[in-house]
Amino acid sequence: MSQVFVITEHINGQFEDITFEMLGKGKEVASSTGGELVAVLMGSGQKDLASQLGVADKVIYADHAELANFNPEAHSKTAAAIVAANSPKLVIAASSSMGMEIAPAISVDCNMSMIAYVSNISADGQTLVSQLYGGKMNVESAVEGNGCVACVLPGAFSGDAGQGGGSPAVEDFTAPDLSGLKIKFKQLIAPDSSGVDITQQGILVSVGRGIQNADNLPMVEELAAKIGGAISCSRPIVDNKWLPKSRQVGKSGLKVKPKFYLALGISGAPEHIEGMKDAELIIAVNSDPNAPIFDYAHYGVVGDLFDIIPELTGKL
Amino acid sequence: MNIIVAIKQVPDLVEGLEIDSSGKDLDREWLKFKLNEFDDHALEEALVLKEETGATVTAIALNADGIDKILFTAAAKGADRIISVTGDFGDVVSSHEAASALASVISQLDHDIVMTGVQAVDDRDGQLAVLLAHHLKMPHVSVVTGVKVNGSSATITKEYGGGMVAEFEAELPVVLGIQAASQTPRYVPVAKVRQIMRSASIEEIAAGGDSAGAGSSVSRFFKPESGGGAQMIEGSAADQAGKIVELLKEKGIK
Ligand SMILES: Cc1cc2nc3c(=O)[nH]c(=O)nc-3n(C[C@H](O)[C@H](O)[C@H](O)COP(=O)(O)OP(=O)(O)OC[C@H]3O[C@@H](n4cnc5c(N)ncnc54)[C@H](O)[C@@H]3O)c2cc1C
Question: How far does Cα B148 stand from its chain's mean position?
């Protein structure tokens, strides 16, 4: 494989973990195919970030005022221009808020195929496995023709292999014309940090859509109090405004690593798993024996949470 | 203002998923389908904007078995126009194919905002919103949790990880991938859907242009191994609760 490109992601001057996970996997594919690993970096006055991308053989850096903060229009245009100028066979992007704007843009603009939710890439870069149907099914795809953009799931690959290394050559790329953008970046808004910080809790009693409605939350709160933990949740609970955003575990919520994580009526979609799979002890209660959460839990209970919760509270 | 919402149905994951005899698809015989939940959020956000601005909302979907019910439900919720895009679609329509077919029709309609769900459980070859935007040569914002229209522009909120959000100002028209509507998607009783089926009608428009393929092929479906997965705790609810408490004591947690 001639070249493997990795679209790096950073926010507030810091690379996201996924960047190193992508570089590690990209290095593996590049090495086994005798190719070169190229890291794509976009920013404004941020060329020095390249020094952290030592695993790459080369860094391509595009500098432009419009790239100072992530902008779906500016970043996707620039990334597609960089890829078009180089025609790599494999582009690795993140299955993330930024990657979901960039990868499809490259796919259409550069006429490459795209595979989403990738959890594995073969050594030759031609076969990709993705997690579909909320994590209930794996699908293996064979890439045809013009090269592929792989959107990889956070946590699928080790970040260690993407750390350290040498000091790659940094090649400047002149950003395409970004005048007259229709999308303007306004501001970044940090999450409300008042209240309980679930990332600092040793025990989390986490509740999902299986709880059915807000009226059933007090029984979960009672259990959490008995067990000496805090209550956290999956995304639909926050979308329904039953609990504040600060309690959400997962991709767009918080990453937690408690000693004990009790998942009640949570299916285990990849976006939730991303936030809790490193907990020391995970016990899941779910009425569906095929719920993907059981692939990540250490212990599983197939059952009705409305039966288990009162029993558990009573015994604690 | 014209808002177009692209919607589709996906397998309901409440049902057990089985692999068909080819090994390359779901066994579709017993699958139940439902509206993609993120498309439901997109439709809801469009209806909220309609209430705020008087916009016309058009729901559009590729023709498929069962899509009429989904479109009539959208009409019952408040969509002004419902369109089924006809064409030579198979059981599985790739996101690339869907994007080019939808773009061929949407480009002929008046549109200030085109919305769809941020993702779907079966979009193997990528999420529709941004693919569609690039086929329409329109700017896009995805993972959107807030839209406020101010005349010819809109303030858009996009989510990142860790609860961080970014705010953008977008000159219309724009394509949006909706993560969550500003309120829980509304529910309509079946009776109202039945009623609308008598008065509303679905417009059929043929997809034009050359349909792009996914550029990749499925070689196999396989279920995640429950290898290393959970040790199951059996028994009655009381037994199970008892064993959980024992475990917590054993591990020094309680
Ligand atoms: C960009 C993006 C970011 C996202 N970020 C996040 C995130 O940060 N966090 C997150 O959680 N999700 C996130 N999601 C959403 C994610 O895709 C899933 O939709 C969500 O995790 C599902 O939540 P759930 O498991 O509670 O609901 P469901 O998937 O609906 O699962 C409910 C579960 O409850 C079980 N159940 C039902 N009744 C009972 C009962 N009586 N007893 C026991 N079990 C029962 C069911 O079997 C089912 O498994 C994100 C999605 C996108 C697109």
Answer: 21
Domain B2-206 class in CATH? alpha beta
Q: Which residue of B has its CA nearest to A280?
A: B251
Residues of chain A with Cβ-Cβ distance to B238 below 8 Å are: 311
Nearest-Cα distance to chain B for A61, in Å, is 23
Total domain count, chain A: 2
- Number of alpha carbons in the 13 Å side-chain half-sphere of residue B7: 36
- My answer on whether A138 and A101 are in the same domain is yes
Residue numbers of the domain that contains A229:
198-315
Exposed, middle or buried: residue B225 (CB in 10 Å: 0-12, 13-18, 19+)? Answer: exposed
- Which residues in chain A have their CB less than 8 angstroms from residue B222's CB? 137-138, 140
The alpha-carbon gap from B98 to the nearest alpha carbon of chain A, in Å, equals 13
CB-nearest to A294 from B126, B216, B226 is B226
- A23 plus A99 within the same structural domain: yes
Examine the predicted complex and report whether its ipTM is higher than 0.90.
yes
Per-residue pLDDT of chain B (254 residues; tens, 9 = 90+): 999 999 999 999 987 899 999 999 999 988 999 999 999 999 999 999 999 999 999 999 999 999 999 999 999 999 999 999 999 998 899 999 999 999 999 999 999 999 999 999 999 999 999 999 999 999 999 999 999 999 999 999 999 998 899 999 999 999 999 999 999 999 999 999 999 999 999 999 999 977 667 789 999 999 987 645 799 999 999 999 999 999 999 999 98
Q: What distance in Å separates the CA atoms of residue B72 and residue B196, rounded to the nearest whole number?
A: 7
Q: What is the pTM of this model?
A: 0.95
The residue extents of the domains of chain B are 2-206
